[in-house]
Amino acid sequence: MVRSVVRAMAWKRDQGRIVLDAETIGGQITLEHLIAIESDQDLPPDLRAGVRGVLSWVPGYSLAGRRGGSDEYVGFMRTHILRAMRDFQAGIA
Q1: Sign of the alpha-carbon dihedral angle for 46, 11, 37, 16
Q2: Could you give the CA distance from residue 55 to residue 63 in angstroms, rounded to a whole number?
Q3: Looking at residues 36-56, what average pLDDT do you find?
Q4: Number of Cβ atoms within 10 Å of the Cβ of 37
Q5: C-alpha span between 49 and 11 (Å, rounded)
Q6: Other CB atoms closer than 10 Å to residue 47's CB: what's the count?
Q7: Domain boundaries in the chain?
Q8: Neighbour count for residue 56 (Cβ, 10 Å)
Q9: pLDDT tens column, 35-45
Q10: CA 56, 10, 75, 93: dihedral to nearest 10 degrees?
């Protein structure tokens, strides 16, 4: 999960769009930022696909649902991605 996001952020760093450090990485692994990265048309397709793969792990995630703008849907996704991140962090601690 983190690898796909970091690869996309490294590309943005190489383009001069972000400064890449631990704080940036931590701040970018939120639902809103993952959706923004996946939607970034400037990002190479293979990097966007990696982030899309991360989002596909979120129960109920779909591009169609995300584009519908439902606050309830985003809340549902946020809950599940936060659980996945917590489980991941517990696994590396």
Answers
A1: negative
A2: 9
A3: 90
A4: 24
A5: 14
A6: 20
A7: 2-92
A8: 11
A9: 888 889 999 99
A10: 90
